[in-house]
Amino acid sequence: QVHLIESGGGVVQAGGSLRLSCTASGRLGPNNNMGWFRQAPGKEREFVAVISWSAASTKYADSVKDRFTISRTPEENTVYLQMNSLKPEDTAVYYCNTAPIAYFPWGQGTQVTVSS
Q1: Which terminus of the chain has fewer Cβ atoms in its 10 Å neighbourhood, N or C?
Q2: What is the arrangement of strands in the sheet containing 78-83, beginning at the earlier edge strand?
Q3: DSSP of 43-104, one letter per residue?
Q4: pLDDT, tens digit, for every residue of 87-108?
Q5: Which DSSP category does 29 fall into?
Q6: What's the CA gap between 19 and 97, in Å, rounded?
Q7: DSSP structure class, residue 32
């Protein structure tokens, strides 16, 4: 069973940056495209970004395109999300999982709060 642990969240002012990390306790396989998702208070969890196993391809939600960058280090079983030019509407709990379908149990997530 793979367990996902997200970290790196915090409180930042609008325009600031944060780097999130997601580490998998078990070994990720070559079919595991990994993604970041987020859930704001009172809203459904939504897709943010996905990266292929080889890191050769990425895809982003329109709302974060050109501001967020997803990356991964397969040998470390870690996926990152570099978030720049943060906006108050980016405030949410951020989660990682396989994408587009989440196969693993959801982790605790990491809270990102952007103040205006």
Answers
A1: N
A2: 4-7, 18-24, 78-83, 68-73
A3: S--EEEEEE-TTS--EEE-TTTTTTEEEEEEGGGTEEEEEE-S--GGG-EEEEEEESSS--S
A4: 999 999 999 999 988 999 999 9
A5: P
A6: 17
A7: -
83 vs 105: CA distance, rounded Å: 24
Residues in the chain: 116
> 18: alpha, beta or left, given left = phi > 0 and alpha = psi -120 to 50?
beta
pLDDT tens-digit map of 3-59: 999 999 999 999 999 999 999 887 777 678 999 999 999 999 999 999 998 888 999
Peptide bond into 100 cis (omega under 30): yes
CA distance 109 to 41: 13
